[in-house]
Amino acid sequence: MENLDVTEVSVNPPPQSGGEVLVFVYGTLKKGFSNHERFLKGKEKISDAVLHGYNMYSLGRFPGIVVGKGNVYGEVYEVNQETLRRLDALEGYMSGANNMAYNMYVRKEDKAFLLNGHTNEYSGLFAGVFVYIYNHPDRLGSGTFIYSGVWNP
Question: Taking the model in full, what pTM does it have?
Answer without folding.
Answer: 0.85
